[in-house]
Amino acid sequence: MTANIIDGKAIAQHVRRELKQRLQERHTKGLITPGLAVILVGEDVASQIYVRNKRDACREVGINSFAYDLPNSTTETELLTLIQKMNVDPKVHGILIQLPLPHSINTAHIIESIDPKKDVDGFHPTNLGLLAQGRPFLRPCTPYGVMCLLNYEKISLKGLNAVIVGTSNIVGKPMALELLNAGCTITLCHSATRDLQHHIQQADILVSAIGKAEVIQSIWIKPSAIVIDIGITRAPSGKLHGDIEFSTAKEIAAYITPVPGGVGPMTVAMLLENTLFAAENAS
Questions:
Q1: What is the pLDDT at residue 203?
Q2: Which residues are catalytic?
Q3: Which end of the chain has fewer CB atoms within 10 angstroms, the N or the C?
Q4: Residue of 234, 274, 225, 282 lying closest to 6 (CA atoms)
């Protein structure tokens, strides 16, 4: 068999078109245009590219983008002051802090300083807590994007054994909560997991978010499993690789996401979705 390739790029474009239409309807009704403040600290090249893509996406669908590019010398106090200003600005409905931050700044302090109602990354403890309670408000963008992909493909998740490899607060843990809320039985694997192969072989749905090129062998994958590859690694040649051996895994799985062109485009689409949702729910 050959897997159904989940085209995240095409699905993300569909989501963006729908968002653009909804935003145009808001404009017609005279409602305020949603605004996203994107804050970049330092001159990391990869971060600059990510930020530029997010700002371009805002312009494409009709969201106001407010750019704050700060020098690497920015102190934690200065960044906190800016965030507090954005928290009370009625034109700003979403606040995004591009990670990673310089080592001199406590990332947890910065995330916790964002108004949870403007936390469009979904990283604030309040939003993660609501997700854990099955009452999601602003959802972490990458796991949210995965759920949208699965929903778009009309994949029924209830009762499936889900194995998530990677336990970060940004992807792995919220991904587990999303799948738990969808009715899956959850196994979370990490660096101390014994016999990773055994756990993966039990997975009806496998989600990998490690960031090590092709670390998961395709022969471990259960036939007809749903395989979601979130990990991404750039080889010295410049080629991008996922955590899973795609060329052979696609001959085993029922559904699989490619790298690139799978989950990545959905992360940005869900950021836009969260920004509109925040504007719709602004008090």
A1: 98
A2: 54, 98, 121
A3: C
A4: 225
One-letter amino acid at 137 equals F
Cα–Cα distance, 207 to 264 (Å, whole number) = 14
Same domain as 247, residue 158: yes
In a domain, 110, yes or no: yes
**Tally of structural domains, the chain:** 2
pLDDT digits (tens, 9 = 90+) for 224-239: 999 999 999 988 898 8
Angstrom distance (rounded) from CA 250 to CA 237:
23
What is the distance between the alpha carbons of residues 54 and 203, in angstroms, rounded to a whole number? 33
What per-residue confidence (pLDDT) applies to 141?
98
Q: Give the CATH number for residue 165.
A: 3.40.50.720
Beta strands in 3-151 (DSSP E): 4-5, 35-41, 64-70, 94-97
At 25 the three-state DSSP class reads helix
Cα separation of 47 and 87, whole Å? 23
- Domain of 72 in residue numbering reads as 31-116
Q: What is the mean pLDDT of each run of 10 residues along the chain (283 residues)?
A: 93 98 96 97 91 95 97 97 98 97 96 98 98 98 98 97 97 98 98 96 97 93 98 90 94 97 97 98 86
Strand partners, 41: 70
Name, in order, each residue with C-beta under 8 angstroms of 247's C-beta and a sequence gap of 6 or more.
Answer: none
Global pTM reads 0.96
